[in-house]
Amino acid sequence: MQLPESQVAVLEAANADEATPVDALAAATDLPPETVTGAAFELEEQGLVAVTERVDETISLTDEGRTYVGDGLPEVRLYEAALEAGADADPAPMGQVIGSSGLEGAAVDIALSNYARKGYGSIDSGEITADPDADPAADPEANALESLAGEGTLDESNVLDQLERRGLAEVAESTVREVELTEQGVTELMAGVETAETVGQVTPELLTSGEWEDVKFAEYNVEADAETVEGGCVHVLREMSERVKDVLVGMGFEEMDGPHADADFWINDCLFMPQDHPARTHWDRFALEQPTHIDDLPEGLVERVERAHREGVGEDGEGYHSPWDEDFARALALRGHTTSLSTRYLSGTEIGEIEPPARFFSVEKAYRNDTLDATHLLEFYQIEGWVMAEDLSVRDLMGTFEEFYAQFGIEDIQFKPHYNPYTEPSFELFGTHPTTGELIEIGNSGIFREEMLEPLGVDCDVMAWGLALERLAMLATGAEDIRDLHGTLADLEFLRNAEVTY
Ligand SMILES: N[C@@H](Cc1ccccc1)C(=O)O
């Protein structure tokens, strides 16, 4: 059998009847301990040796412990001074005894706190006694310190606790690896083991000298784990958002953009959302304190929106017959949906009047004061969109979604009737999660009402939607918790490996 040099050396130095520590093998083979360990593991893999581990305890003296080996323990020194002062017969004054003991500073406290505990005598109201039967020569702590300083070992392990507690000795644990020959190892050794000269890398010298023809090359280990290099990568949500934009542009849509903090007028009033709608109260809304109001709103539009709210539109319009406050409409908040962009564009304030047929979209952030959970974030992306054309029907709406989601491999969209103050009819969209099988809500949609469109000056049909980008990402990547995708709990491992399927 042929083996690399270090393995042959370790194999020959190891024993079959006793485990040899790596350090001993290192000394015997003249190899560094880490080379011996490496070789031992290679040999173990081939069944030639067994490698075992044991934990060794080494006890050593601390600096303080070492001082007492020379000077004696403070309490012993106090006892000796007390004896000299005759305290074995009559109590002696403390101050005098301490003075003659030569103890100073912290050592005095140490002496006093151990004196009575160890039976050297008593300390009471400024006087000290010495027990005539006490024997400093038999002090177990002093003896333990001596033997640690000498042989470095201890006979009684119960003293060790006390020494550790006093900070006089320390215990350190170290792992010792031991190597023992297996039966197979012995057999191979008897059959003869030779050193294999293997070369790991071809060098210019090997080639020019022609030596390469005679050497033995090490085999490639194609199963060895290679180091994974984690470079930066595009975040799945960013990837998703880019992909969505591509798809929508491909379907003939143009992109909208606009302010993240906007007037309630654009966020709610233009959408025929009554001012006392629950979603408009504080719990759902991130209000801005400054600035308090938006100034530039198209005047005629403000009036028309107010009229729609109060009286409705058309001949038999009804409206809400509830108060409508212009100041309330001019207050600012972070947009709770990106439909504020649609109202701005439909009103003609952004790029001028838009003629049918027209299609617009945005993939932008919306903000809601929701409770964070597996499907809700406080900041999330909406895929907003609308189509303006003559005679749109629910079939157009459904067909558009089917076409859109099919681009992401999602073919089982479900529609459920819904209610929005600004659309009639309205539909919620659901998709099936690829791993949990759960039906999750992925969007909201409908055909804009007269009450919304007329004040904006639009006189043909508009179908519209707001879809959740994160929910689409959950369906496309299999993420089960939206918090895995972004925020402080984001799952980096998942984000590194997630693939957007389409
Ligand atoms: N604004 C709605 C989505 C929507 C937009 C346009 C029409 C219908 C619904 C939401 O955030 O849920």
Helix content: 25-40%
Mean pLDDT value? 91
The CATH architecture term of the largest domain is 2-Layer Sandwich
Strand tally: 19
Radius of gyration: 43 Å
Inertia-based shape: elongated
What CATH calls the topology of the largest domain is BirA Bifunctional Protein, domain 2
Give the class-level CATH name of the largest domain.
Answer: Alpha Beta
Q: Numbering strands along the chain, what is their spatial order in the largest sheet? A: 11-14-15-19-18-17-16
The total domain count is 4
| Main beta-sheet strand count, sense and barrel state | 7 strands, mixed
Proportion of β residues?
15-25%
Cα distance spanning the termini: 55 Å
Low-confidence stretches: none
Number of helices: 20
CATH-level-4 superfamily name of the largest domain: Bira Bifunctional Protein, Domain 2
Bound molecules: phenylalanine
Structural class: alpha+beta
InterPro entries: aa-tRNA-synth_II (IPR006195), aa-tRNA-synth_II/BPL/LPL (IPR045864), Phe-tRNA-synth_IIc_asu (IPR004529), Phe_tRNA_ligase_alpha_bac/arc (IPR022917), Phenylalanyl-tRNA_Synthase (IPR002319), WH-like_DNA-bd_sf (IPR036388), WH_DNA-bd_sf (IPR036390)
Binding site for L-phenylalanine: 339, 382-384, 422, 448
EC number: 6.1.1.20
Protein name: Phenylalanine--tRNA ligase alpha subunit
Write the layout of secondary structure elements.
Layout (H helix, E strand, L loop, with lengths): L1 E2 L1 H9 L6 E2 H8 L3 H13 L3 E13 L1 H9 L2 H11 L7 E2 H8 L4 H10 L7 E2 L2 E2 L11 H11 L6 H9 L3 E13 L1 H9 L2 E2 L2 E2 L4 H6 L6 E2 L18 H15 L3 E2 L5 E3 H4 L31 H13 L14 H5 L1 E3 L4 H8 L11 E10 L11 E11 L4 H13 L7 E7 L2 E10 L6 E10 L1 H7 L4 E8 H9 L14 H6 L5
Parallel strand pairs: 1-8, 9-10, 11-14
Antiparallel strand pairs: 2-7, 3-7, 4-6, 5-6, 12-13, 14-15, 15-19, 16-17, 17-18, 18-19
